[in-house]
C-alpha cells in the first residue's frame, strides 16, 4: 500500500482539498446528513398521514425540499442555525486546518463551521485574526487580486456554497447561501448552468492550478457547479478522490483504475473521462476517510506535525436536531392548510401528479370549511393546472376563474397571474392560440406592473410556445431567450430547461439539428439533476428524433428506449404512448414493417385505454402513411378516415387539418383530384380565421395543383398558386417561391 501511495503522492506535490458534507459526520463533529435533516423536517411540515409516503421517495433532493421549506415555512432557513450547536471539529477538520496553515488550500461546499473552529483551536490569539473564510462576492474578487497566495499571511477557507454567517467576524452572510434549486441556478451567465459563478472562477482556478486535487467527503452529486467546473478548468496536476467506506482496516483500502466507462458511477466516469481526454492522472481510493487520513495522508502530507488528539464526547452532550427544531417558532404548530400545500408541492416536485392532486383536493376541502380564501384559491389553481389532469377543460376553466376572482378580491397579483397563465394554457391546448396569447400577455403585464422579474418567467415561456405554434419562430426565440436571461438572474432551473428545449425544437424544425441537439442535451442534464423524470422523457423524445434526422438510428433507438423506460417507471402513459409511436415510426423508416405495426398497436391500446384522442390521431396517421408508402392506397385511406373520425370527436382544428391533408394526398395518388381539391377547400375554410400564414400558403399551393389536375383550368390554378406565392414572399421563403415558379412553368408547358 505505502509503495503505491509513494507513486501517487510525490514529495514535491502541493495540494488543494475539495471537501463535502461527509467529512463532518464523524464524532465529535456529528453533523446530521442531508437525509436526516429532510426526515426530521418532513415530520414537522406535512400532514401525519403523508410522512411515510414522502420519506419513501428515493428521488427527493435536499435542495428541492429546502426550496419548499423556504417558500412556505422558514424564509430565513433558521433550521441551519442548528449547525451552531456543532462546533467540535473531528480529526479530518484538524487535518484540513493544518493544511491551510501550511499553505495548502481547502475548498468546501459545507455550511458548518467546523474547519473554522479547528483553525481557531490551533492558532494563537494574534494568528486567529488572519483566519479568512471566503464567502461573499466581494471577498472572492478581493482575494483574486493577491498574486501569490502562499506569501499571504491570511489563512484562507473557500466556502463555495456560502454560509449563513462568518463566525470569525460575526457578519451575517445569508445572501451567499446556495442551498436550494433556485440558488443553484442563480446569477449564472449564458451557458453557465452547470458551473460555479463567474466571480468565483478566477480565484478557484488559481488555488487548483498545478496542484494535486484531493476530494473528501463528497459524493459528486452537486453536479450543478462542482464537477462541471472541474471539467472546465483542467488546471490541476492530478485528482485523488477518496470514496468513503465504513470498514476501518488498512487492508480494506482499494485503489481503483478504469480502462473503460462501462458500469461506472457518475464520479467514476468523471475521473475516467478526465484521464482519457486530458491525460491527467486520476485515482479513486475506496477507504474509510478517517483511517486513510490518520494512517497514511497525515504523515505523507503534514510529515512532522503530530496528529491532533481528539477528545470524543458522549453523544448525549449534543442536542438532537429533531428536538432542537421544535423550539423554533417557524416550526411550532404549523397550520394544517400550510402542511397540505407543502406536501402537495413535494409530490409535484417529484412528478407524482396523482398524490399531489389527492393532497391538494383534501386541502381544498379544509380551506373551504375554514373559510380560508387564500388557501382555497391556491388549491383550486393547483388542482386545475396539474399535468396529466383528468378533468375536462371546461371544469379546469371553471376552477381557474373561481380562483382568479378570489385572488382579485385578496389583491394577490401573483395568484391572479398564475390563473391567467393556466387559463391561457387551456386555450392553447384547444388550439385557440389567439385567446391563449391574450391571457399570457395579461399575466406578463401584471408582473411587469409589479416589477416582478421572477413572475414574468412563465408568461414569457408560454408566449414563446404560442408564437411557435402560429409559425412566428423568430418571435418565439426572442421570448425563450428572455426566459433564460431571467432565470440566469433568479435561478429557477426548471424553466431554463423548458426554454432550452423549446429553442432546440425551433432549431430542429428549421433543420439545424446539431444546434438543436446542444440545447436539448443541456435541458436534459438540468432535468436529470433536478430529478424531473417526466421532463426527461420529453427531452429524450426530441433528442431521439434529432438523431433520427441525422441518420444515427442506433442513438435514436437508445434515446427513445431510455425515455420509454422512464415513462413506464412512473406510469406516464402519455409519454409512453408518444415514445412507442416514435419507436414504431423508426422501425417503419428502416422497413421493419412488422415491428412497426406491433409497436403502433401497443401505443393505440394505451390511447384507447386513457382516451388520448390526439395521440390516437397521430398514430393512425403514421400507420396510414406507412400503408401509403407501400402503395396500399385503399388501406391508407381507411386508416386516415378512421383518424379523421377520431379527430372530429376532439374538435381540435390542427388534428382535423392534418388528417384532411393526409386524405387529400392519398386521393391525389388515386387520381381522385376532385376529392383532393374539395378537401383542401375544407382545410382553408378551417384556417380562414387563424393567423398561421405558413399553413395557409402550404395548403393554397396544394389546392392549386389539385385544382389543375381536377379541371385542367390553367388560369384559375395559376391564380391560386400566385396567391400562395405571395404568402410565401411575406414569410421570406425563397426556396418554396422558386418551387411554385416551377409548378407554374409545368402548367404552362402542359397547355
TrEMBL record:
PROSITE patterns named among the record's database cross-references: TPR, TPR_REGION
InterPro entries attached to this UniProt entry: DHS-like_NAD/FAD-binding_dom, TPR-like_helical_dom_sf, TPR_rpt
Gene3D superfamilies registered for this protein in UniProt: Tetratricopeptide repeat domain (1.25.40.10)
Transmembrane portions of the chain: none
Pfam families: SIR2_2 (PF13289), TPR_12 (PF13424), TPR_8 (PF13181)
Protein name: SIR2-like domain-containing protein
Organism expressing this protein natively: marine sediment metagenome
Amino acid at each position: 500500500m505505502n509503495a503505491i501511495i509513494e507513486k501517487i503522492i510525490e514529495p514535491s506535490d502541493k495540494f488543494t482539498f475539495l471537501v463535502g458534507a461527509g467529512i463532518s459526520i464523524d464524532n465529535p463533529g456529528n453533523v446530521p446528513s442531508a437525509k436526516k435533516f429532510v426526515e426530521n423536517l418532513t415530520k414537522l411540515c406535512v400532514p401525519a398521514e403523508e410522512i411515510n409516503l414522502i420519506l419513501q421517495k428515493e428521488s427527493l433532493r435536499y435542495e428541492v425540499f429546502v426550496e419548499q421549506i423556504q417558500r412556505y415555512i422558514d424564509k430565513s432557513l433558521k433550521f441551519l442555525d442548528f449547525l451552531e450547536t456543532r462546533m467540535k471539529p473531528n480529526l479530518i477538520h484538524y487535518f484540513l486546518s493544518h493544511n491551510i496553515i501550511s499553505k495548502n488550500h481547502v475548498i468546501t461546499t459545507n455550511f458548518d463551521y467546523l474547519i473554522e473552529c479547528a483553525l481557531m483551536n490551533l492558532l494563537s490569539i494574534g494568528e486567529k485574526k488572519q483566519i479568512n473564510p471566503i464567502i461573499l462576492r466581494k471577498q472572492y474578487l478581493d482575494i483574486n487580486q493577491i498574486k501569490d497566495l502562499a506569501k499571504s499571511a491570511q489563512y484562507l477557507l473557500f466556502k463555495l456554497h456560502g454560509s449563513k454567517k462568518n463566525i470569525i467576524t460575526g457578519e451575517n452572510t445569508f445572501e451567499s447561501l446556495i442551498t436550494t434549486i433556485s440558488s443553484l441556478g442563480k446569477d449564472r451567465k449564458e451557458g453557465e448552468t452547470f458551473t460555479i459563478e463567474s466571480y468565483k472562477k478566477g480565484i478557484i482556478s488559481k488555488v487548483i492550478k498545478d496542484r494535486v486535487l484531493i476530494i473528501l467527503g463528497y459524493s459528486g452529486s452537486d453536479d450543478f457547479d462542482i464537477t462541471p467546473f472541474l471539467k472546465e478548468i483542467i488546471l490541476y496536476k492530478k485528482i485523488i478522490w477518496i470514496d468513503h467506506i465504513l470498514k476501518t482496516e488498512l487492508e480494506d483500502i482499494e485503489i481503483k483504475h478504469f480502462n473503460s466507462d462501462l458500469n461506472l458511477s457518475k464520479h467514476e466516469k468523471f475521473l475516467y473521462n478526465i484521464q482519457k481526454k486530458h491525460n491527467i492522472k486520476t485515482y479513486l481510493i475506496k477507504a474509510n476517510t478517517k483511517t486513510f487520513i490518520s494512517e497514511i495522508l497525515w504523515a505523507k502530507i503534514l510529515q512532522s506535525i503530530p496528529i491532533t488528539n481528539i477528545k470524543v464526547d458522549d453523544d448525549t452532550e449534543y442536542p438532537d436536531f429533531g428536538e432542537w427544531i421544535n423550539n423554533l417558532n417557524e416550526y411550532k404548530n404549523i397550520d394544517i392548510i400550510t402542511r397540505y400545500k407543502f406536501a402537495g408541492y413535494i409530490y409535484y416536485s417529484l412528478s407524482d401528479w396523482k398524490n399531489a392532486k389527492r393532497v391538494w383536493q383534501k386541502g381544498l376541502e379544509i380551506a373551504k370549511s375554514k373559510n380560508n380564501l387564500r388557501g382555497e384559491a391556491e388549491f383550486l389553481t393547483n388542482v386545475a393546472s396539474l399535468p396529466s389532469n383528468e378533468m375536462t377543460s371546461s371544469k379546469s376553466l371553471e376552477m381557474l376563474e373561481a380562483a382568479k376572482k378570489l385572488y382579485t378580491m385578496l389583491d394577490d397579483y401573483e395568484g391572479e397571474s398564475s390563473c391567467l397563465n393556466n387559463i391561457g394554457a387551456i386555450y392553447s391546448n384547444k388550439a385557440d392560440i389567439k385567446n391563449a396569447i391574450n391571457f399570457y400577455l395579461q399575466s406578463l403585464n401584471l408582473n411587469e406592473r409589479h416589477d416582478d422579474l421572477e413572475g414574468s418567467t412563465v408568461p414569457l415561456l408560454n408566449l414563446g410556445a404560442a408564437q411557435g405554434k402560429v409559425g412566428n419562430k423568430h418571435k418565439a426565440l426572442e421570448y425563450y431567450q428572455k426566459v433564460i436571461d431571467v432565470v440566469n438572474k433568479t435561478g429557477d432551473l426548471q424553466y431554463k430547461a423548458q426554454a432550452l428545449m423549446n429553442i432546440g425544437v425551433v432549431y430542429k424544425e428549421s433543420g439545424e439539428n446539431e444546434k438543436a441537439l446542444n440545447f436539448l442535451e443541456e435541458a436534459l442534464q438540468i432535468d436529470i439533476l433536478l430529478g424531473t423524470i417526466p421532463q426527461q422523457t420529453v427531452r429524450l423524445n426530441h433528442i431521439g428524433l434529432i438523431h433520427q434526422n441525422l441518420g444515427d438510428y442506433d442513438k435514436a433507438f437508445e434515446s427513445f428506449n431510455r425515455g420509454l423506460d422512464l415513462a413506464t417507471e412512473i406510469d406516464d402513459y402519455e409519454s409512453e404512448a408518444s415514445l412507442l409511436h416514435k419507436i414504431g415510426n423508426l422501425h417503419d423508416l428502416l422497413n421493419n414493417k412488422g415491428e412497426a405495426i406491433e409497436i403502433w398497436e401497443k401505443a393505440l391500446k394505451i390511447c384507447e385505454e386513457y382516451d388520448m384522442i390526439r395521440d390516437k390521431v397521430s398514430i393512425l396517421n403514421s400507420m396510414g402513411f406507412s400503408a401509403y408508402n407501400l402503395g396500399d392506397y385503399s388501406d391508407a385511406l381507411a386508416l386516415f378516415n378512421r383518424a379523421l373520425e377520431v379527430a372530429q370527436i376532439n374538435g381540435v382544428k390542427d388534428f382535423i387539418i392534418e388528417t384532411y391533408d393526409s386524405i387529400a394526398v392519398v386521393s391525389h395518388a388515386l387520381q381522385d383530384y376532385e376529392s383532393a381539391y374539395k378537401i383542401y377547400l375544407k382545410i382553408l375554410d378551417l384556417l380562414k380565421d387563424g393567423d398561421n400564414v405558413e399553413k395557409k400558403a402550404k395548403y393554397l399551393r396544394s389546392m392549386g395543383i389539385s385544382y389543375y389536375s381536377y379541371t385542367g383550368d390553367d388560369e384559375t390554378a395559376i391564380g391560386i398558386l400566385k396567391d400562395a406565392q405571395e404568402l410565401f414572399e411575406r414569410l421570406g421563403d425563397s426556396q418554396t417561391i422558386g418551387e411554385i415558379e416551377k409548378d407554374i412553368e409545368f402548367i404552362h408547358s402542359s397547355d
